[in-house]
Design goal:
Layout lengths: L1 H13 L7 E11 L6 E5 L6 E5 L7 E11 L2 E19 L4 E27 L2 E17 L5 H8 L14 H10 L2 E16 L2 E11 L10 E11 L1
Antiparallel strand pairs: 1-4, 1-10, 2-3, 3-5, 4-5, 5-6, 6-7, 7-8, 8-9, 9-10
Length: 233
């Protein structure tokens, strides 16, 4: 037993500290670099023509989430879950009714795994540890569908859209519709990050490009800026 204690003590002294790794977790605040553009959906003609027109988002979607990571032998494996929200307006027009500027929300829920490695370590005054990292990973996203003629038809449960309706009366049906018609996408991403650590307080500033098609319809990918703040041990 005494010899075993001596061997373990020697291992602690001789092996590099990075072998033991660092485990961390915290919260993640993010902003997408892309937003939904304007679009228009029309069906029918003449007296049966119906149009749903969506307007461009006023602001870039923002979100919140959480993360956990482990450092081992100079490499980091990080898992995260996030949700982002953006708001836009749409109009509904038929031969008897026209409703303008109906507020509507867009939501995406995402998860990702990233493998990253420090490529440079340096010091900044008042910061104990600073590192620049690069990373690659995989991601998956579920997002809500855009307002469209088919959405209005399903909410009203009818093919006759020539009558008027009150959008406020459809809130319960809308929630069910969004869940049943969510859009699932997956892809890969590249990431450049800057890490700051003071004692157990740990923060990360990441710039990420998600190579995931149609999270924003018609786009092959989107950028994302993340600020992570948590603890590392």
């Amino acid at each position: 037993m005494k010899n075993l204690k001596i061997i373990l003590l020697a291992a602690v002294i001789i092996l590099p500290q990075s072998v033991f790794g660092i485990v961390g977790f915290g919260l993640n605040v993010l902003q997408d670099g892309t937003k939904l553009e304007a679009s228009s959906y029309t069906e029918g003609s003449g007296l049966s023509e119906v149009t749903v027109e969506s307007y461009e988002m006023n602001a870039l979607p923002v979100g919140l989430g959480g993360y956990i990571f482990i450092d081992l032998l100079g490499w980091t494996v990080e898992l995260e879950g996030n949700s982002a929200y953006g708001e836009y307006k749409f109009s509904f027009r038929n031969v008897v009714n026209q409703m303008e500027d109906i507020p509507f929300g867009w939501v995406r829920v995402s998860s990702a795994m990233t493998v990253k490695k420090n490529i440079a370590d340096f010091s900044i005054p008042l910061l104990a540890k600073t590192a620049l990292s690069i990373g690659v990973g995989v991601n998956s996203h579920s997002s809500t569908p855009r307002a469209s003629v088919s959405m209005v038809r399903d909410l009203l449960d009818t093919d006759d859209l020539t009558a008027g309706f009150d959008p406020n009366s459809l809130e319960d049906e809308l929630i069910d519709y969004l869940k049943e018609n969510k859009i699932d996408n997956s892809g890969t991403h590249l990431q450049l990050g800057l890490r700051f650590k003071i004692l157990v307080i740990d923060s990360h500033l990441n710039f990420r490009y998600n190579m995931t098609e149609d999270v924003y319809k018609g786009e092959k990918g989107f950028t994302e800026v993340q600020f992570k703040l948590g603890m590392a041990f």
